[in-house]
Amino acid sequence: MRVPNSVVLPVGTHVDCCQEQEVAEKTRDIMARITAMLAERKSNLAHFIDNLEGSEEPKFYVDQWERLKEMESCTLTILNLVAVNCTDHRDIKKLEGTILEHVKNEELFPEVVRVLPPVYRQVEAAIVDIAQREEMVAHHGMMDLQHLLSKLSQRKHLASLGRELLQDILRYLHRIGLIVWYEEIKHLESTVFLQPTFLITMFKLLVRYRLVQQLESIS
Questions:
Q1: Does this model's pTM top 0.70?
Q2: Helix, strand or coil, per DSSP, at residue 183
Q3: HSE-CB for 140 with a 13 A CA cutoff
Q4: Gap between the Cα atoms of 91 and 141, Å rounded
Q5: 5: left (phi > 0), else alpha (psi -120 to 50), else beta?
Q6: Helix 163-175 crosses helix 118-133 at what angle (to 10 degrees)?
Q7: Count of Cβ atoms closer than 10 Å to residue 74 Cβ
Q8: pLDDT > 90 fraction of the chain, expressed in percent and rounded
């Protein structure tokens, strides 16, 4: 709901536990609930915005008002629910085909027709190679942005690669999920996670059930 121009494909599983009529009924119910949820969200946002605009000192709430207006402008497209039986390989292939069909829809994803310069593919291939070969990256999955630029520039076909172009390419690779680069976070803007799975491992260590109690139990 907070990501601009989001596209969501609801997927209903465990179809094998339901009768055919139940699947149809549950599908209608889920889509109706989603529609109601979006309508409620829109109404709540409008209510909050009205309250801030009608306050005695609206200038004190400019930051909140801007955040709410930004959320209000985020469009959210909900596609029709796909019901699958996860124990049936044919249903998995059906889901895969549905996803690919939607992704190729230019109205939903205008960038799908964007033609990338060859250097984008060259940098992408080089980063994959570095992530696999570099012992440092293999150990903790990340690399300093300037060091990455230096490594890439050592390659003959990327000798003229500049920092600004690399940053544009990293934004693209971040969007498609190949790497993770939090350029908007000051303390992380110079760090590129070439192996995003490292973050998952780290979060699993830090964010866990009853972590506080576990720490307190240590003498």
A1: no
A2: coil
A3: 6
A4: 35
A5: left
A6: 80
A7: 13
A8: 51
Q: pLDDT tens digits for 97-156? A: 999 999 888 888 876 767 789 999 999 999 999 988 877 665 778 899 999 999 999 999
Q: What number does CATH give the domain 118-201? A: 1.10.10.2260
Q: CB of 140 within 8 A of CB of 147?
A: no
Rg (CA), the chain: 23
| Rounded distance between C-alpha atoms, residue 2 and residue 72, angstroms | 9
CA angle 161, 163, 165 (to 5 degrees): 65
pLDDT of residue 2: 63
Alpha-carbon span 144 to 149, nearest angstrom = 9
Residue 77 is encoded by which pair of tokens? 């497209």
Residue 142 to residue 188: CA distance in whole angstroms: 11
- Could you state, in order of their start, the residue ranges of all structural domains in the chain? 7-104, 118-201
Task: Say if residue 216's pLDDT is above 80.
Answer: yes
What distance lies between CA 96 and its chain's CA centroid?
Answer: 19
**Residue 19 · residue 88 · CB < 8 Å:** no
In three-state secondary structure terms, 65 is helix
What is the rounded distance in angstroms from the CA atom of residue 78 to the CA atom of residue 213?
Answer: 40
